[in-house]
């Protein structure tokens, strides 16, 4: 079966803990690395279903680049609107990631449905 599902589960758990640390304003030495992991992993995993046609390494690079773009657009938008906060940034990146992932699922479901 392999270790891929185990690594995926650990990654999801680490991202959720990082988001919880930021949103609940909890203090921990692991807060910074886990929040950073969430900010890179959540948009990257959300973009992954859109890039199924690429080989593995091209997909990793594209998802990582896309995650950085999402983070930078959220940060720039919040700074331009004078509403910057750590909690708001994490919430906005999480919300955008969920929307991107759900749009990929909806697209896949629409193409599978019998006509």
Count of domains: 1
Low-pLDDT residue intervals, each spanning 5 or more residues: none
User: Shape, please?
Assistant: globular
Question: What's the assembly state of these chains?
Answer: single chain
Q: What structural class do you assign from the helix and strand content? A: mainly alpha
Number of strands: 0
Biggest β-sheet description: none
H-E string: HHHH
Keywords: Membrane, Transmembrane, Transmembrane helix
Transmembrane segments: 32-51, 58-78, 84-106
What is the topology?
Layout: H1 4-23, H2 31-47, H3 56-80, H4 86-112
Helix pairs in contact: 1-2, 2-3, 2-4, 3-4
Structure commentary:
- The protein has helices at 4-23, 31-47, 56-80, 86-112.
- By secondary structure, it is mainly α.
- The chain has one domain (4-112).
- Helix 1 (4-23) packs across helix 2 (31-47) and helix 2 runs parallel beside helix 4 (86-112).
- The chain is globular.
- 19% of the residues are buried.
Write a compact overview of the structure shown.
The longest helix has 27 residues.
